[in-house]
UniProtKB/TrEMBL annotation:
Name listed for the protein in its UniProt record: N-(5'-phosphoribosyl)anthranilate isomerase
UniProt pathway: Amino-acid biosynthesis; L-tryptophan biosynthesis; L-tryptophan from chorismate: step 3/5
Enzyme Commission code(s) on record: 5.3.1.24
Pfam families: PRAI
GO terms of molecular function: phosphoribosylanthranilate isomerase activity
InterPro entries in the record: Aldolase_TIM, PRAI_dom, RibuloseP-bd_barrel, TrpF_fam
Protein's UniProt keywords contain Amino-acid biosynthesis: yes
Amino-acid biosynthesis listed as a keyword: yes
Reaction catalysed by this enzyme: N-(5-phospho-beta-D-ribosyl)anthranilate = 1-(2-carboxyphenylamino)-1-deoxy-D-ribulose 5-phosphate
One annotated GO biological process: L-tryptophan biosynthetic process
Amino acid sequence: MATSMASSMLTAQSVTPSSIQSSTKAAGFAVDASFVRPLRTRVKICGMTRIEDVDAAVHYGVDALGFVFVPASKRNLAPEAAQALFDRVPPFVQSVALFLDADESLVETVISKLSPDLLQFHGRETGAYCRQFGRPYIKALGTDLFVDPSSGLLSDLLADHATARGFLLDSHATGALGGTGSRFDWQHWPQGHYSSVPFILAGGLDATNVSEAIQRLQPYAIDVSSGVETAPGVKSALKIQEFMNKVNPIG
Ligand SMILES: O=C(O)c1ccccc1NCC(=O)[C@H](O)[C@H](O)COP(=O)(O)O
């Protein structure tokens, strides 16, 4: 008890904003006053379709749960069917509603019925489209954009989405379906001064590769779906446990 109190005091003392910022700079990220890297990697598990999976994810310490409102997806939820899942999300765990080039009416229905904490746009949505809902959002970007940043496409997109709370980098080509379980070439992970908002790593993560991903890329957060599933939309409590233990090892 005494030892653990002493070590938590030590941690609290040594974690000044300036020490956080200098370690962030060392990792190659642009830092401004609005983005201080957290000490632990945050986790979103996406594609929740079952109450028992929500419970397992919460039990193992997830930060956010993703719910897919994309009719073409195997993980798609009808807003009415999602109510019971949203009702199960406890305080301090975020609910994230995911859309892909959706009709505005679907987004509005989900907002009014389910009150998600955060919206996630996975297609070719413009900044103006995303902002019209007046809710915080993150924007998914295909890493094809990062292969040649000099093209200007990437900086245009980041500028258009200047009010996004973060950018999720996935292996999908922009506009294509996500949640495929495939990894992108991590060499294309942004190391430069692209943005002062957090980058979230997604695409093909699982318990075998997530530690390496975090060490090499130091993302703000990670997002996983297939890597903790036995079938699309069916999560495994054991895989969630193994994954979460690798992200933020206990002890
Ligand atoms: O999950 C889907 O079916 C889906 C459909 C359409 C757009 C996006 C979708 N999922 C996005 C994600 O789940 C995340 O980006 C995910 O963390 C990465 O997926 P995975 O490679 O399966 O871990």
